[in-house]
């Protein structure tokens, strides 16, 4: 049971990190196009699996990123809860505010038509 759970977390971490990896690697290739460390691809022949492209920059950058986020997660033991709070705050307009405002716009409830003295 524990193995399946860690594999799921690893898959989520890997999938969510791909856009960051792609952005930084693309930016680095544009910034330093003449750098062999960043642009050089080595082709490795893995007989049963075929050819494999290998880049030392990707190895170093991705390893450093994983180490940094792992250390950050260890320093902030409630890091996952904090991310959940940020996610809830970012989706609040979609789940609460917009549906209520649309309902009030289209159905014009009577309590919005109450005239309060002194408020125009």
Strand share of the residues? Answer: 5-15%
The string of secondary-structure elements, in order, is HHEEHH
Structural class: mainly alpha
- E-strand count: 2
Helicity range: 55-70%
Radius of gyration of CA atoms, rounded to a whole number: 25 Å
With strands numbered from the N-terminus, the spatial order across the biggest sheet is: 1-2
Overall pLDDT confidence: 78
Please identify the oligomeric state: single chain
**Tally of contiguous helical segments:** 4
Protein name: Amino acid transporter transmembrane domain-containing protein
Keywords: Amino-acid transport, Membrane, Transmembrane, Transmembrane helix, Transport
GO cellular component, one term: membrane
InterPro entries: AA_transpt_TM (IPR013057)
Label this structure with key terms:
elongated, Amino acid transporter transmembrane domain-containing protein, mainly alpha, transport, amino-acid transport, two-stranded antiparallel ribbon, transmembrane helix, 120 residues
Task: Give a description of the structure.
Helix content is 69%, strand content 8%. It is elongated, with a radius of gyration of 25 Å. It has a domain at 2-75. The protein has 120 residues and is mainly alpha-helical. The protein has helices at residues 2-31, 36-39, 56-75, 79-107; strands spanning 42-46, 50-54. A hairpin with a 3-residue loop joins strand 1 (42-46) and strand 2. It starts with a helix and ends in a 13-residue tail after the last helix. The mean pLDDT is 78. The chain is built from four helices and two strands, in the order ααββαα.
